[in-house]
Design brief:
By secondary structure, the protein is of the alpha+beta class. It has helices at about 1-10, 20-45, 50-55, 55-65, 165-170, 175-190, 210-225, 240-280, 290-305, and strands at about 20, 65-70, 75-80, 85-90, 90-95, 100-105, 110-115, 120, 120-125, 130, 135, 140-145, 150-160, 230-240. About 45% of the residues lie in helices and about 20% in strands.
Length: about 325
């Protein structure tokens, strides 16, 4: 139980209030400047003070490792021989125990696109960077939607570190953790919804806002343990996979044609009904059932045809 409580305390961020670095800087400079003169004076006088005066120079040298400057939206995580002492998020110039390990952690807002991979810096044997790392171009992830259709999807995730202790101590590499978990959340989301839906069901293409909110919540749930806050998650690419894109396009075109024809027929029937009522109401012409059927047929052909109609002049009667 004590070990578990100790583990929880280690992974809880603690604020560290360091000393401003200007006074220690003045003291260190004074030791470096006045140290040789004090040693020469002590050597001339003799006595036990010579040892302490000689010790001033190493003290000043070691104290130099305690200075640090914290830039805006940056932080320092302090460790003393592996023990977590606290985090500094205040901007300024400070001095801390020279034996503290000061790990730099950025608090800036960052973003990446799923499907891209980051390459680390390449260093030589001396530890010098010979090739700057970067990020490859994004490649959409191929997944199956709820109906089993293969689709290509990718998303842009905007995030930042809010808990430095969790980011450093709970996960091995928090940046890689964010990328992998975001990719997994995106795949899981795509498998829960269809690409497109004809009814009011939530779909990837038809309900972008709702889907993005779900994606942000899913990613945040996975990254809570890493001290990361997801600011925004948006789908940046969504399409059918190339092997079924042509077939799905034909299906969409057929659905569009059917929907358009349905509207045309509804409008044509309404216009025919209005025309018959108008003729009957004004007494323009008396039509029997055969003449009405012929007139309805001709009007529907004219109104529903996708080509220009050719007029036909009947020189005889309706029955000849």
């Amino acid at each position: 139980m004590l070990l578990f409580e100790g583990f929880l305390l280690v992974n809880q961020e603690k604020s560290f209030h360091p000393m401003l670095g200007w006074l220690p800087l003045f003291c260190v400079v004074a030791l470096f400047v006045g140290g040789p003169s004090a040693i020469i004076w002590a050597a001339a006088q003799g006595g036990a003070m010579l040892f302490f005066r000689i010790f001033m120079i190493p003290v000043a040298f070691v104290s130099c490792f305690g200075f640090m400057a914290v830039a805006p939206n940056n932080s320092r995580v302090l460790l003393l021989f592996g023990e977590y002492k606290g985090s500094i998020k205040q901007t300024g110039f400070y001095w801390v125990n020279p034996f503290y390990s000061k790990k730099k952690l950025s608090l800036r807002v960052r973003n990446f696109e799923t499907g891209s991979t980051s390459t680390p810096d390449q260093k030589n044997e001396m530890g010098q960077v010979v090739a700057k790392g970067g990020r490859t171009a994004s490649k959409p992830s191929k997944v199956n939607d709820r109906d089993g259709n293969p689709i290509d999807i990718s998303a842009v995730v905007v995030w930042k570190v809010v808990d430095t202790a969790e980011a450093l101590f709970k996960v091995d590499d928090y940046e890689n953790f964010v990328e992998v978990q975001s990719e997994a959340a995106l795949r899981n989301l795509a498998s829960r919804h269809p690409y497109d839906s004809e009814d009011s069901e939530v779909s990837l293409r038809g309900n972008t806002v709702d889907v993005c909110e779900q994606l942000q919540g899913d990613i945040q749930e996975r990254l809570d343990q890493a001290g990361v806050e997801v600011i925004e998650a948006r789908i940046s690419h969504l399409a059918y996979s190339p092997e079924i894109a042509a077939a799905m396009l034909q299906r969409q075109q057929a659905q569009a044609v059917v929907a358009a024809r349905t509207k045309i027929v509804e409008g044509a029937v309404g216009m025919v009904d209005m025309a018959l009522d108008h003729l009957k109401r004004d007494g323009i012409v008396e039509l029997d059932e055969d003449r009405k059927a012929t007139m309805v047929s001709n009007l529907l052909v004219v109104l529903c045809s996708d080509r220009h109609t050719q007029p036909v002049v009947n020189t005889g009667t309706l029955y000849n």
